[in-house]
Amino acid sequence: MSSYNAAQSLGLSKKGRIAKGMDADIVMLSPQLAVDLTLCRGEIAFFKK
């Protein structure tokens, strides 16, 4: 999934893409759609053990 279009429509230029210089906010989901990992500004904010 991508949040690029939503970020652009809200004027959030550092969000919505995985690329150098972007904020690196990422959520990784399990096959059951449970949150396994959350990165905020490239740092681990949540990790399911």
Automatic annotation (TrEMBL):
Residue ranges annotated as coiled coil are none
Q: Name one Pfam family in it.
A: Amidohydro_1
Which InterPro entries does the entry link to? Amidohydro-rel, Metal-dep_hydrolase_composite
Ranges where the Amidohydrolase-related domain occurs = 1-44
Q: Which named protein is this?
A: Amidohydrolase family protein
